[in-house]
Amino acid sequence: YSAAVPGLPTSYAAILRIKSASSSSALFNSKNRPRLSSPSLGSISSPGWRGTAQHYRSPTNLYHFSEAFKRDESVDYGPVFVQEPDDVIFPTDSEEKKVSLNCQARGNPAPIYRWLRNGTEIDIESDYRYSLIEGSFIISDPNEAKDSGQYQCLTTNVFGSILSREATLQFALDTVPNKSHLQGCAGVIIYVGLRKQTKKAK
């Protein structure tokens, strides 16, 4: 790094080039503080240079920090879950004709994703309704007979595989859930439906 002092010839300002931490410490050592003189600037003492020297060294420190960060990023490791799928209750009369089971993992190399339904791996290509977007499993036009069940996300790279918790996909009427749905779910949708049903009975 080099800096030109205003009013000084460029050749003279070259003495401010900092080649290494050792040379900079020698340059700005309290015993070796230079005293500059110039016809245009007069005499310049160096008390304020200590902070300047630290400022000049800081890019070097940031560079080493950046390099250390890059080394950490280059470390290979197996997949680790960032997000696992949650239970889903899909209203049969919903206008939203799509179900999303979310899954996200990090790893190096980047993990690949597969999905299981009731313990059996799903062939994404076997059904046009299935798609995989950044690890999340999307079902278009969900069907209760075909799609209800227990889902798990399986992520893999060369260092290992991890399997997510089970997420239940259930189908229910928005206002009158049946007994099996009551046993499997503790969400707000169930209780709202019961209150609506009670009001109608009155």
Task: Note down, in words, how this protein is organized.
- The chain has 202 residues and is an alpha+beta fold.
- It has two domains: 10-73; 77-171, Immunoglobulins (Immunoglobulin-like).
- It contains six helices and 13 strands.
- It has helices spanning 10-13, 21-27, 49-73, 144-147, 179-184, 188-201, and strands at 36-38, 42-44, 77-83, 88-91, 98-101, 104-108, 112-117, 120-121, 130-133, 136-140, 149-157, 160-163, 167-172.
- Strands 4, 7, 8, 11, 12 and 13 form a six-stranded mixed β-sheet that branches. Strands 5-10-9 form a three-stranded antiparallel β-sheet, with no helix packed on it.
- Strand 7 (112-117) and strand 8 form a beta hairpin.
- The longest helix has 25 residues, at 49-73.
- The radius of gyration is 33 Å and the shape is elongated.
- The protein starts with 9 loop residues before the first helix and ends with a helix.
- Residues 8-30, 36-41, 43-57 and 176-202 have low confidence and may be disordered.
